[in-house]
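Write out the 3D structure for:
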Amino acid sequence: MNRKRMASWALVGTLVLSAVLSACTDNKNSSNTSSPSPSSSSTSSPAPSSSASAPAMADGPLGKYDPPITVTTVRMFNSGLEFVKGQDWDNNVYTNGLKDELGIIVKNQWIVDDQQYTNKLNVSMVSGDLPDVFEVTLQQLQLLVEAGALADLTDAYNKYSSDLTKKSFGEGDGIALKAVTFNGKLMAIPNGGTTGREDSQFIWIRKDWLKKLNLQPPATMDDVVNIAKAFATGDPDGNNKKDTFGLNLDYNLFNGWAGLDGFFNGYHAYPYNPGGPTATGLNLMFLNKGGQLDYADIQPEVKTALGKLQELYKAGAINPEFSVMSGEKSAELATAGKVGMTFGQFWNAGWPLNEMKSKDPKVDWGVFPLVSADDQPVLKTSNSITPTRFWVVSKNAKNPEAAIKFLNFYLEKNYGETRDENYHSVKQDGKDIATFGLSPVLGGFSETNQNDFYAVQDAFKSNDPSKLNPTAKGYYDGIVNYRKGDLKAWPNELMFGTEDGSAYGILGTYKKNNEFMTNAYLGAPTATMAKNGPALKDLEVKEFTKIIMGEQPLDTFDTFVDNWKKQGGQQILNEVNEWLKQHQ
């Protein structure tokens, strides 16, 4: 199972931000000697102090520079980094391959661990001492674009990008491309670490409880509400005690496990608070309503869904202690057999439900698609397709197209016709040493797991698993073993087993029908988000919780909306709509 690496934004104080903008702008204004990109439309002549000879060029996506060029970068590593024996940052499969095949010499200006990288780069931004190619957060990208410190990669992309690179940019309806486009100009390369809508939710339900109470899987949100009530009152575990609950949730309210995202989606509402009340408050969800961005969490549909949750709480279908329960505690409620339904993501099969079947063969959780409250399709909140880290090129780089070539090379060696396993990992002393992270620019495709699912299904239909890659073969073997009686392999069945009864089967249907709602704001946290966002999110979670528990009437939601706007929300709306004007 692929785990999405969550990147956190390091917020820089107002004075530091001003210094960054000032330094980058000063650097920009004094850099008259920088050379234009190969396809630049600029007609200005180079300053007298610039080199008389034009920078080396190399035609085609993987064309070689002759003579070689040098491209500077900066790097970060985590504590688990290992090198192949005899290799290091300056001597490895990528530095050698780029030099030998593309004529590019990679020079690392500095290397720090990933916990120090953002702050170290902030210092470089303040001083104006930037390498040619480097990785940034979304906020750093915004600052550098505003300062005019980055190269416009539009022409370089159009002229040099390979088919694989264009494919990676075009995934998810081109969301990654939109995220790096400013005023019609391509200003960055999106990190390829996004996932294929895998943050979309499903309904996980105890099928054995449905059978016990003679109930059918839900077709509407009314069915969801009625099932939740029945699980709380109908003694589905057969112990003659009223000790079960219908809908699982905890104090996070929004999460990949026991979150309410999918419940709200059923009422066409899209509140979003990853991480719950301890989140940074910077991950706000906005909807495009008639050409204007509006905050998803204050829409009237949210109030409707909160009313249904309040109804379930009053009916005893929700644990009355949910407001003090962590995600781990809500997981214990499920694994103890005390709750029969939860909204969550694909990985719930691997945690916390994974061992329930082997411990009690009668347990039978099933995964079902989200359902609608009316006759309109239900869209699923999904933001994992949106990149949060990027590679950028300094305005002063002599060969900005080299960054595009870095990506071309990485994708070719990992996914192309000349794919070479050494560019991904090397077997050493009985274990795999990862090498892919040594590339100065990384990429990828968000549909890897989904494609493995379809490959597994094809293997079952043809009864021939010989064409499966090692990862997909592992899923296939797990499903086979489960069907032969190995109950510990149950998660493989739940995630990859069938087209209509597994997480990736249902997710594939979501994708075919394009049933997603994605954040319409792709910019960095605005100034007011950074200042007021955490307090506003805390206000929201508290008010929603009080409404669900009936401590406040449903109409309190209208007061919350007014307070949200007064306490900085309206200014946030002004700021994100200003961003929208620049990206239309």
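The mean pLDDT is 87.
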